[in-house]
Amino acid sequence: LHMPIQVRADLEMLRLLSSMTSLSTLSLALEIPHNASPDFRGFPNLRNIDVIDNVPAATVRKFLTTLTTGKLDTAGFVHLPNIGWSPEQLRATCEILVERSPDLKEIHLDLSVPQLDALDTVLAPLTRLRSLHEAKLEFRSGSPITITDAFFQTLATPWPHINSLRLYANTVDGLVSAATLAAFATMCLALR
Description:
25% helix, seven-stranded parallel sheet, 9 strands, two-stranded parallel ribbon
């Protein structure tokens, strides 16, 4: 189900969608009031989720708590730059995503994180995704994002099945050496 961006799913719509046993793909924008908490679980056969548009991190985390599937293969969070997430919000969202979907195979993050300066600490929870095959990590920040050899080395070991990695930052500080990229490719034999 691909809902138009103009239709924002509130708690009542999510409750209805969560009971649909045949729902396997869902693309939607969310609107959960700040003071509301979901009191249901569902989406028993959901395999693919894309949360689109300008959605606060807290809203995404509330939505993730409604998932009982454990079968999620693909998760995408794509936001226009109007609402920025803090590094702490990004890390907390990654924590809940990994907790709810430990066997995730694909992740796509395209976010504005204005104060993001280093990726290693905020993305650390994603290293627990041992079944990850594809990662698209795109960040817009107001300050340079440090990308280092150490960051790539921490990704290679937990992601042995990765076949596609796209990392984009609009402003980059640091340099990844050719030796580290070669070592990453050696450890991740499925890379295309």
